[in-house]
Automatic annotation (TrEMBL):
<dbReference type="InterPro" id="IPR021695">
    <property type="entry name" value="Phage_KPP10_Orf10"/>
</dbReference>
<dbReference type="Pfam" id="PF11681">
    <property type="entry name" value="Phage_Tube_PhiTE"/>
</dbReference>
<protein>
    <submittedName>
        <fullName>DUF3277 family protein</fullName>
    </submittedName>
</protein>
Length: 143
């Protein structure tokens, strides 16, 4: 049996901890932008594997509607929108403190502006950030 505790997940953007998560099983998602490579098959049926040098990735975060984290992320996004020269690209560190998984990335930029949705229920705010270079280390974890 495996063990996971979302309270044991640390997500740091430029050293600031994001922790006011919306409800759901996909509040933190990181994915590489490209596959590790591609198999190319010639006319004779022989193949060659071409490794990709692209190590970029995309982070998607879902945080609660009225949280301090939204304020922090929105301030950074507004700085990027208003004065990209003064904007310091984001660094990312995601650590599963229980299972020791680690995601790290550098040179991040906001790509999607957040939507504003309100109604009779809670509406999470989704943040999308792309990074130039990333790595993912998955461990066996606690069993």
């Amino acid at each position: 049996m495996a063990i996971y505790d979302h309270n044991q997940l640390s997500v740091l953007l430029n050293g600031y901890e994001i922790k006011d998560w919306a409800d759901g099983a996909d509040t933190v998602k990181f994915a590489f932008a490209k596959d590790a490579g591609e198999m190319l098959i010639g006319a004779d049926g022989g193949g060659v594997f071409v490794a990709s040098t692209d190590r970029s990735g995309k982070l998607t975060l879902k945080v609660r509607q009225h949280s301090e984290d939204n304020k922090y992320l929105n301030r950074l996004r507004a700085l990027q929108d208003g004065n990209i020269k003064a904007f310091v690209p984001l660094t990312l560190e995601i650590r599963d403190l229980l299972n020791e998984d680690l995601v790290s990335a550098t040179k991040g930029y906001f790509t999607t502006r957040p939507e504003y949705t309100r109604g009779a229920g809670h509406n999470a705010t989704t943040w999308t950030i792309v990074f130039e270079r990333a790595s993912v280390n998955l461990e066996k974890g606690v069993a």
